[in-house]
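Quick one: structure for this chain?
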Amino acid sequence: MSQSLPYPSAPTQSESRSVLAIPAFRKLWNSMAFSSFGDWLGLLATTALAQELSGGDYTKANFAIAGVFIVRLLPAVILGPLAGVIADRFDRRRLMVVCDLLRFALYLSIPLVGNYFWLYTATVLVESVTLFWSPAKEATVPNLVPKSKLESANQVTLLASYGTAPLAALTFTILALFSHGLTNLLPTKYASSADLALYIDAASFLYTAYIVYKLKEIPKGPATKGAANENIGKALVEGFKFVNDSKVIRGLIFGMLGAFFAAGAVIGLARTFVGDLNAGDAAYGILFASVFTGLALGISLGPKIFSQFSRRRLFGAALTISSTFLLLLALISNLVLAIGVTIILGAFAGVSWVTGFTMLGLEVEDEVRGRTFAFVQSLIRISLVLVLAIAPVIAAAIGKHTYKINNTVFTYNGAAFTMFFAGVIGILVGIFSYRQMRDRPTVSLWSDVLAAFRGELGGITGAVKTGIFISFEGGEGSGKSTQTQLLKEYLESLGETVVLTREPGGTPLGVKLREILLDNQTGDISPRAEALMYAADRAHHVYSVIKPALDRGDVVITDRYLDSSIAYQGAGRVLQPAEVARISRWATETLTPTLTVIMDLPAEIGLSRLESQDRLESEPLAFHERVRQEFLNLANVDPERYFVVNATQTREQIHSQITERISQLPLLKINAKSKSKKNKVH
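Got it. Here's what it folds into:
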């Protein structure tokens, strides 16, 4: 099973250069970058123009800005679900060219007409046209790059979409600074920073139309032959049904909406907020750029900086921190401090955003991944623009309020109050998401922070794997070997390719180490030396057997893995389990099982099942009881990864419970087969 991540962190420089070296994609990427630049500049310009047309009235300005966002929302609500399906019916290259020419004409007309009616009308039309341009672009990318480079192409596409926002804001700021000097060249009516930005915006779409027109490599027909006959209603419903059926994905989407809620409140209120700080369009551009600079930093650097943390914990924690900074921003009356806080706010919102999409990439089945992401993107787009529309309205309704405490006077406006309440809601959503993501509930977040500084979280969070890795652990005589064989046969019956192995002894080198470690004639070995020998076997085992199989997308089942060393050489030999775990993490490059099945059995019963005893099995009963207790301790810390089975049951009962738990993993073939069987029964 492939677990590719549709929205990972920023690509490395070599990966970016590799995919941008493809001439056709590089040309399309240039058009995407200019188009995104135009979209962001157009948003800044239209909101600023709405504020200018208000004539300085605070309430009217807020309602006018809200009106711009509302009319940008309406097409997404009405046409968003249909546009992607309809766009597949047309020649993509011709559709993109026509859309860019229409956006050029519409943006050019806004400053020339210069009234609210046409501002809103043109904005609705621009947004409607964009809804058709975007899916045509998305469907074109896979036809211009090989499949092996598609992930990198998606990454640099994301960079083009969001990385141009700060550039657009900087351009708007520069225009605001120099607009007064241009009044000598242009009539005052057409020389404001908003008007100049709209002229540049229009020119950017004219340029993108030219680029796409010259791009003959774009296929003329729909991406799939059956697109013309596809049932539109069915295509719309399938994405929603899958999201609704998954508790984890529902929780993720709820939290991701919260992340955009915090960022959206800042964007929607930025113009009036900087006005209340006695600043103008230049400050508006800087604050707008700060949000997206923070988002870009969070998206590109967050996964690297917080790589030690569990994604589920990081998601809710980052969202809560972002919302806390939104509260702080609402209380600040200094522009410089506000910009710094906004960057941090955006960074944590970006961490939450990219973490959420990464988790969706891991949780969603491949057959419905595209439709699910399209549904999620549409929902987030609608929710974000809705926040952008409502926030200014609420701010206008609240108005300005002055408070006097002792001899100090505090003045807060509607924008500050609205951001404060948005921060409170964001914190509540973040806490809810954090609590919903059941990830090692017995361990506090602070413990994880300390463990990360010590480098001890790597073995817990692990690295992304292509295949599925299942380990079996337990004391002596617990029946691991029997159950691993039964599971192998079960998975193979469902069409999975399975590699069954064991430790020690899964490689020729491991066989020799096994003889030394378990032979009674070996005698006593230093506990530390024993731990290092097991780590050496494990390092070679991962290198030569486990990792290659996972890279192929196979299912790997191993009888014992690193948890055995933690239990036997750590608790059993009375070493520090954390030290033994650190050795194994280094040896395995933090490769962690997807699921660890612990066969729990009282040590006395397990030992009574043995016909003969090797060097470890012959240890005293107290040794084996310590081993059993350590396995249970590990499972208690991380119940998401560990599954404890009562090994006193029959072989059939144990196998049934294991397969039931395995069916909950994101194994495509297993899920498909299981669902098919259930449907036949019902």
